[in-house]
Amino acid sequence: MAGGSAKGGGGHAEGVAGVRLYVWIYILLLAFTGLSVAVSQLLMDVFGHTPVTVAILAFSTIKATFILAYYMHLKYERIWIRMWLYLPLAIFVLVLIGVGPDIYLVLRDLWTHILTFAGVSGGVHH
Amino acid sequence: MQQEGSGVMVSSTSAAGASSYPPIAGTLPEEQYEWRGAPVARLAFWLFLAGEIIILLTLIGASIFFRLTYPGWNEASSYTNVVISTINTLVLLTGSLTAVLAHHYAFASRWALARLYLVLTMLCGFTFLGIKVFEYSREIMHGFLPNTNAFWMFYYGITGIHGLHVLAGSLIILGVLFYIRKKPSKYAVENAALYWHFVDVVWLYIFPMFYLT
Hints:
heterodimer; A: mainly alpha; 6 helices; 0% strand; flat; B: mainly alpha; Four Helix Bundle (Hemerythrin (Met), subunit A); 2 domains; two-stranded antiparallel ribbon; 6% strand
């Protein structure tokens, strides 16, 4: 049937999510933004730049997931639509695999930093 | 009755009547153009977004890994303004809320509300750009130029491309506002809103990379 189904069809916007849900997600997005700013300003000197950067990027990923799932309605879409998000992400993963050796060197230093902070003597040996 | 033309399923019961010819694009209600249950307008726009995602994901990915290795990044990023960028983040997130509400009311055929929220989204876009221009002018006056070091090269490159996308999103919304005055189209509103959300998601990674860390 054309367009009328609540899940994935053309008329999903009024069927699957309401104004109240959108406002709650907006409040969550603001809260995570506030949390990101607070962490960057208060914990940078305590934990160092790299762990804080990773934490804040994780908050950004949570926010992006909310927007993609609810504001862009991917949670309710058919695979033919979601595919256009998965495909570029898959290409990005292939690029990451292609530059794997460089990433290994970066992450090795990152884990050394984290383990050193946690008190594990010597961190990762290399 | 369903007809198949160029792989796109369309209904021929209403506008095309009993004609044996495939209906010309635009002659049927827009929701009747679909492919395997997905509206063609939405499918096509996501195809466009897939290209945009690859471009910006690659740029942001490069800056993330560069940031992890470049020793001067932390010091250079301390000169960008957290307060201004946080205000800009709130402006973009507010624009996302108004965009999804415009989308919601367009699908409910409440066009006055849909237009109102589209106007608010567009205003958020121009507010963001105004603040960004002010921010750029401050940084340039302090001597931070794209050739100052690698951080500022990434900063002006990525925030500049993002700013152009915000400008494009705002102009698209302006175009949609004119378009739906003559022909109410829920998919035109939806695609404008999707573009806005995409631009917002990109900023969610730019903000921490260049301002918070």
